[in-house]
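Weekly puzzle thread! Below is a chain. First person to post its structure in token form gets bragging rights.
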Amino acid sequence: MSKFIEQQNWRYATKKFDASKKISESDLEILKEAIRLSTSSYGLQPYKVLIIDNAEIREQLKPVSWNQSQITDASHLIVFANYTKLDETILDEYIKRISTTREIPEENLKGYGDFMKDKILGLPTDKQSIWTSKQTYLALGNLLNAAAELQIDVTPMEGFEPSKYNEILNLTEQNLNASLVATIGYRHEEDSNQYVKKVRKSKEELFETI
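Winning reply:
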């Protein structure tokens, strides 16, 4: 069995974290870099990633996260916040980033920039928000895989009130929306979920070759 598959069998959605254990700064930097390097449509990364370490803010977020203990007990709380509306400024900044990183004159990227603007800015605002929100799940995938390699637990969470997160974290004013939450840390020995077998469809049920 490959190391990667072993890690995927090891990981699970942790329900009870050991609040006494903190992720080291070096490991946290690896997880941040994994998120940063994640795949994204056009490479645009139309979101921000908030790492909530402040205990007081996390206490405020807990009631609007269905009072789930992971919010306050995990080592860190990560909020993926998607841009709700994209404009030319955001896309132009990305073109400049390509130009600087790859040492390509901006004028040589005009065709690509115009194509991207046509496809993205042509979408209604609600569809833009749905699209940018989906991008956060790609970043979550990298976080899950990198954390499993480090034997750090991650719990992806949709059980929260985005509008309340937006209010507490002042996201709306920044053209952002809380799309997805992930708690990271170390499982508590009392979390019974770690001792049961992972339940998934069989390959025969899941895959179809056409």
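Puzzle host: Confirmed. Bonus trivia for everyone else. DSSP finds nine helices and four strands in the chain.
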